[in-house]
Amino acid sequence: MMMMEWKWLRLIRMAVMLLVLEGCRWCTTDACLEHERIALLHLKPFFNYGNQLQSWVEVKGSDCCKWKRVECNTTTRRLIKLSLNSTRWFDNMGYDMDNGNLNAWYLNTSMFLPFEELKSLYLSGNAIGGDLENEGFGKLSSTLSNLEILDLSFNYLNDSILLSLSELSSLRYLDLSYNQFEGSSHPRGFQLLSRLNNLETLDLSWNSLKNSILFHMRNLSSLKTLRLRRNQLKGRLDHIQGLNNLTNLKYLDLSDNSIESISNQDGTQWRLTNLEELDLSNNLFRNNTISFPQGLSSLKYNNSLQGSLDTKGLRNLTNLKKLDLRWNQIESFQSFKDGGSKLELTHLEELNLDANLFNTSVFASLNKLSNLKSLSIKLQ
Ligand SMILES: *[C@@H]1O[C@H](CO)[C@@H](O)[C@H](O)[C@H]1NC(C)=O
Ligand SMILES: *[C@@H]1O[C@H](CO)[C@@H](O)[C@H](O)[C@H]1NC(C)=O
Ligand SMILES: *[C@@H]1O[C@H](CO)[C@@H](O)[C@H](O)[C@H]1NC(C)=O
Ligand SMILES: *[C@@H]1O[C@H](CO)[C@@H](O)[C@H](O)[C@H]1NC(C)=O
Ligand SMILES: *[C@@H]1O[C@H](CO)[C@@H](O)[C@H](O)[C@H]1NC(C)=O
Ligand SMILES: *[C@@H]1O[C@H](CO)[C@@H](O)[C@H](O)[C@H]1NC(C)=O
Ligand SMILES: *[C@@H]1O[C@H](CO)[C@@H](O)[C@H](O)[C@H]1NC(C)=O
Ligand SMILES: *[C@@H]1O[C@H](CO)[C@@H](O)[C@H](O)[C@H]1NC(C)=O
Ligand SMILES: *[C@@H]1O[C@H](CO)[C@@H](O)[C@H](O)[C@H]1NC(C)=O
Ligand SMILES: *[C@@H]1O[C@H](CO)[C@@H](O)[C@H](O)[C@H]1NC(C)=O
């Protein structure tokens, strides 16, 4: 009798467990939230170029966490990443600085408001333009308080959106490269960005920014990476002072501009003691008149130095580990001040002098590099 009862009890227990398991599948606790699914469907018609969002189906109960370009938090089942990059027709071939707005469109950012836990939003390459000053991204700040990564590269945005961007105070990474920022049309524009006091990476490459941009960004002291490649920085950079305040900066890319010299005439020392890599490639430096930051551990020039390189400016780089001088037209090293010709970089481990105009006399300049591990001097 006892045996029979136990058997029944076990059977009942199994049935209950099965019900619980099946039941969970039915009540779909592991699907995405209905209102987020509907919000995604509202976005779909704007970003479905080439039917890239075909997995976004209008079927009730469909788990949008499994849709392409969507990522959810596995616990809360709420959206944390949305990758809508290159999902709109973008006539790259017909891109023209003067008529660039040809196929720009107005993005209604309210459509992103339901995604309250969103951390990363990729919107690059979508021809987004329009005057977003009043609407813009600012309104997202009220609900998207976790937004850390915003990629708006390859669009038609200009200075008029800076005010609204400056309200997204949770941002750590902001990519504004390949847009139409000028830095001068809105006097307070880039200064406003300094409200983003969590911002660590700012990419402004391939815009039309002038020298004054460095000054306007002087309060962005949380920045660790700043990219200003291919803008309109030119001549003498006087605004060292602005740069100098970015004391957390680790990586600075100023390549592909027309910088001739970097001056700090008033004698202020560089305070960028955390700067590890400075890329000054493809500028118009002639004689090396720059005063480099002391702690720098990696320096790169390409296609911007010629003739005899003044070693005076390099002498202070006692932490320099990596020096990349490829693709210049350097003939020799020389200190114009004291006539010396030695590179005295005691920490240097990697030196690349490929594609310059050296002859064998250069080796005499290199014999003080006591820690050198790799040296390359290929002729072009
Ligand atoms: C998912 O959400 C939980 C609860 O809010 C949180 O503790 C966790 O860090 C989140 N995970 C990710 C990857 O965001
Ligand atoms: C979109 O962006 C994500 C994140 O950067 C990247 O992994 C993915 O390759 C990009 N997709 C396209 C089509 O560009
Ligand atoms: C923007 O999107 C929101 C939410 O989808 C909608 O309520 C609003 O009408 C839209 N505004 C415009 C101007 O289309
Ligand atoms: C920015 O773009 C908008 C819309 O394309 C345009 O109306 C406005 O004049 C532009 N502003 C500047 C400063 O170029
Ligand atoms: C930048 O910082 C200076 C000094 O702390 C302050 O006077 C100025 O108002 C700040 N500018 C902006 C735009 O935040
Ligand atoms: C920027 O640096 C200057 C001196 O170079 C200093 O007077 C100013 O207060 C600094 N601003 C900030 C916001 O740190
Ligand atoms: C570089 O400096 C040397 C010595 O000061 C000078 O003779 C030479 O003309 C300068 N070259 C250029 C391109 O400025
Ligand atoms: C090198 O550092 C010394 C002491 O800090 C300083 O006086 C000198 O001006 C620096 N030289 C250059 C070329 O930066
Ligand atoms: C250096 O610049 C030249 C000319 O712009 C370019 O062709 C080359 O790829 C660059 N090399 C490196 C290593 O950056
Ligand atoms: C090698 O280069 C140095 C510096 O440019 C020059 O003074 C010297 O004449 C050159 N020697 C030969 C053999 O070309």
Gross morphology: elongated
Number of DSSP E strands: 19
**What's the helix count?**
6
CATH superfamily of the domain at 285-380: Ribonuclease Inhibitor
Which sequence of SSEs, written as H and E, runs from N to C?
HHEEEEEEHEHEHEEHEEEEEEEEE
Q: Structural class of the helices, strands and pairings?
A: alpha/beta
Measured distance between first and last alpha carbons: 96 Å
The CATH topology of the domain at 285-380 comes to: Leucine-rich repeat, LRR (right-handed beta-alpha superhelix)
CATH class of the domain at 285-380: Alpha Beta
Main sheet specs: 13 strands, mixed
Give the uncertain stretches in residue-range form.
Answer: 20-28
Radius of gyration: 28 Å
CATH architecture of the domain at 285-380: Alpha-Beta Horseshoe
The average pLDDT is 83
Which percent band covers the strand fraction? 15-25%
Q: What small ligands are held by the chains?
A: 2-acetamido-2-deoxy-beta-D-glucopyranose
